[in-house]
């Protein structure tokens, strides 16, 4: 990979290599079972890893020109994060040891799903524990650097063992630690535990963490990595650029700002001086106040929810969207009630022309967002 390339540039090149846009492969997705229906579809013999994925949400009318695919990958990553394949605190997940899922090759399919999301303009998983990611990518860490980062995923007994180990100051403390936990640590594969020196306690703590976070589930991790690698060698790409991809695999608190959201949009106005333009200016004033209310936390809507409503994705893809979100207007007819509506495929938001009541506009937008249950439901 070229030195200095951004994650967007890297993923754009990867997508061009990984996806044959001349071929199409369909996934039929059941909204109540996003992950299960995705795994079933991906296990079908006719499913092609290198073809453009076409998403069909079961029971819904609409063509997939990008919107349903973005929505599917967003929902799939969230459901994968909370599945039994992983454990630990939300946003800091590690692999679960599950022999049944290993036998069913589910970790491999999950790895393919993650790689396909990157290849086809979807989001990253954004839920991996940072220490787990560093171990998977063989990123060197300073001794003891992982201890604070991993506390939230360790079971209570392991936390207690680490605390007793790190509090060890004397030979008496050492003897008590070995009596209490020596046999258990030996069973975990920790070497030379009976020769433990107090000055080596930090090194021992790192080994215990590696055992629980990585080696304990090495089979699951290997299967998952192999699944990612089967999609045009995606895991090799990640390992070549571990720092760049870390923010896409691990949780980062970077809420979308008003300024960032506005930069994604372009308003299609009528001719200056026309009656339509005067009405559109009134609507846009209400729209801008609506965005300000979101930014100030005055209404129960986030910019991520608004973005998902319009595009199907609650985060801007690493490569960006194919075009700006186009804001256009529809006429308000007397006696006809129409909510603001969208086309997630063509990235369009249609607002009522001539709304000058800020409160009424806010209520329309909130209802449109909260009542949208899927693609082309508004």
TrEMBL record:
It holds the Pfam family HECT. The keyword Nucleotide-binding does not apply. SMART domains: HECTc. GO terms for cellular component: cytoplasm. Keywords: Transferase, Ubl conjugation pathway. The keyword Transferase applies. GO terms for biological process: protein ubiquitination; ubiquitin-dependent protein catabolic process. One of its GO terms (molecular function) is ubiquitin protein ligase activity. Pathway: Protein modification; protein ubiquitination. Transmembrane segments: none annotated. It catalyses: S-ubiquitinyl-[E2 ubiquitin-conjugating enzyme]-L-cysteine + [acceptor protein]-L-lysine = [E2 ubiquitin-conjugating enzyme]-L-cysteine + N(6)-ubiquitinyl-[acceptor protein]-L-lysine. Its EC number is 2.3.2.26. The active site is at 345 (glycyl thioester intermediate). Residues 45-378 form the HECT domain. PANTHER family: E3 UBIQUITIN-PROTEIN LIGASE NEDD-4, HECT DOMAIN UBIQUITIN-PROTEIN LIGASE. This is HECT-type E3 ubiquitin transferase.
